[in-house]
Amino acid sequence: MVGSASAPGKKPSKKPSKKRRLTGKQKVGKVALWSAITLVGLLLVGLIAGVVYYKTVTIPDPNAAFTTATTTIYYRDGTTQLGQLSVQNRTPLAYDDMPQTMKDAIVAAEDRTFWTNPGVSVTGMLRAAYNVAKGGSLQSGSTLTQQYIKTMYLTSAQSASRKVKELALAIKMTNTTPKEQILAGYLNTVYFGRGAYGIQAAAQAFFGIDAKDLTVPQSAVLASLVNGPGLYDPSNSANVPRLTDRYNYVLDGMVTMGTLSQADASRYENNLPDFPAIQASQTYAGPSGFLLKMVETELVNDGFTSAQIQGGGLKVITTFDASMQAAAVQSAQQYTLRAAGDATATQDPDLLHAAIASVSVGTGEVLALYNGPDYLTSQLAWAQTPRMTGSTFKPFAFIAGERNGFGLNTTLNGNAFKANDGQMVTNDDNGRFGRVSLLKATQNSINTAYVDLVQKIPDGPNQVIQAAEDAGVTPPSQNDNSWDSGDRIALGYADASPLDMANAYSTFANGGVSVSSHVVLQVRDSHGAILYTASPTRQQAIDPGICSDLTYALESVVDAGTGTAVKGLGYPAAGKTGTAGLASGGVGAAWFVGYTAQISTAVMYVADPPNTTGLAGTADLNPYAPPGQSTFYGSGYPALTWVDYMKQAMQGLPQVKFGPPASVNSGHGATVAPTTAAPDQTETTTAPPVEPTTAPPEPTTAPPATTAPPATTAPPTTTAPPATTAPPPTTAHPATTAPDLAGGATPT
Length: 748
Hints:
This protein is of the alpha+beta class. It contains 22 helices and 21 strands. The protein is globular, with a radius of gyration of 34 Å.
């Protein structure tokens, strides 16, 4: 019988087993489990490490530990001292001697949970961690206690290790030190600005009183300053709106915390207390005070705190050249006195202002700057203050023209004519030049030709403005209408500062490469480690061929045009005169801006009306005109000041000739149209026509507050400042003899 049983002695066969596969949810759960285990492990390790660190970390004695080191500012050679900032100014007070108004104000401003928090802010830490998770930098989530710890014992570096130590010290301090003692330590060491550390020094520096006498509004102001002393100091009028907002915030916080009634807060709101005149530190005396303020402003823009700048023991190497700066001071002051003394009716030299700005071609380094004789007497920085530019603005129309197909040989209308706005355009003394080339129009600064050029360019006025910005001129603020586009914009009713104009002309000399101007080369800490090295922004802003043509035209201004007064420099030079007229008559600003292959320098003159305030730099310059002349032209004292300074600045530098013109668009307009009424002086080169005086559509206004130069970008890895463009240091500046304005051909 056949059956299905297996053969005797054999075991039944088994099916092979299959490995169990995890579902998607099971995989996620497994990963989550191991992640949780890992996280718990890390937390345990971190907790153990934190406990050990907490047990071992010690809190130093605050008053013994707190010291500041003087920051020293040097000229570009790194050894000649320009000035020093803030030897420590601090008078510690006991907690009971501190006014309650100040205690309440600082807590309302900096840490409203101070009296209840454990020394750290959990929400602030989470916010900082979230920022890091997004790829941002490590930022502060600091309580008042953490700020105190950082100020007293740590650096300002945004590092994880510093943050861990800060947190541990803050927690330990809160657990071992009464809150009142922490607050007293903070108020005795925090930096308020003006070199003042602690509330006693701050009360003296800002209000001339002892801290015990501070009122609620005064306390709210001081509490506001801690957030950024340089940003809120009311001595700079531009800071006042920002300070007022912060002041109101502090008052609101005091109301929220119950330390100030709503009625009192409403009474104080938007009403800053009076700031009495305080005897200024002699740190900023003389012309160099302006330079030190510029350096401070740029350091803030480069990321340094006020406390670091004023007391961090920094070694700051600037771009300023000691010998050039001395030459700028000498030239400006010499010609200011000469102009006032030689005028037909003797004038007050204190009402006449010469400004000089000198920039290294190709680097943007500010080599010298004369803003005025004494920062303590007047904080108006004339080399940084925009004023009407006159015909020194014409090169930007030249650039716009060549960008649109015009060239050196383009012929333009040199006679008076009715412009598109329906008004007549004329030249100085109603000069008639017939048809002239763009080259000739530049050489002799012919107004009508340049208005004709701007009208021929599509959207001409805005293209001129664009060329100015491309070259490096800072556009005005929104409430400044001096740059309103019009066909006469090339005539120079637009305002610009001497520093911006010097830097813009350096772009011409640099083949169209614009480099942002700056005054800080390098910063080292107290141990010599490099913290910052300048790396200015640079870009090919203008076609090199256009710059070659423009330089050729501006050379002709010096060789045979309105700028012949500077021919005695002894170096190839290119430049432009500028004489900006007042709508009411007279001259509001007179300029000479020019360059060699190595240095670009702008000189500007303005004057104050006598017995007035708030109208600085708006008076007629003509009363200061040279002997025998009735007009204060840019070809006069500004040109003479320029050449006197440049003779000293160029000492030791090689002779470098400019290249030939590129003749961009050389065929455009090459055929000269017949001239129907060409005057005799059309082709003269020995006695060029008088520099035109342009008339802006409306009078100039009071000068704005001093502004900072453009901020530089992140530093490169170089360790030493460049020294190739500056002349070797000199110990003396030989006097130069100025041309006699009273004799010879009439200067223009």
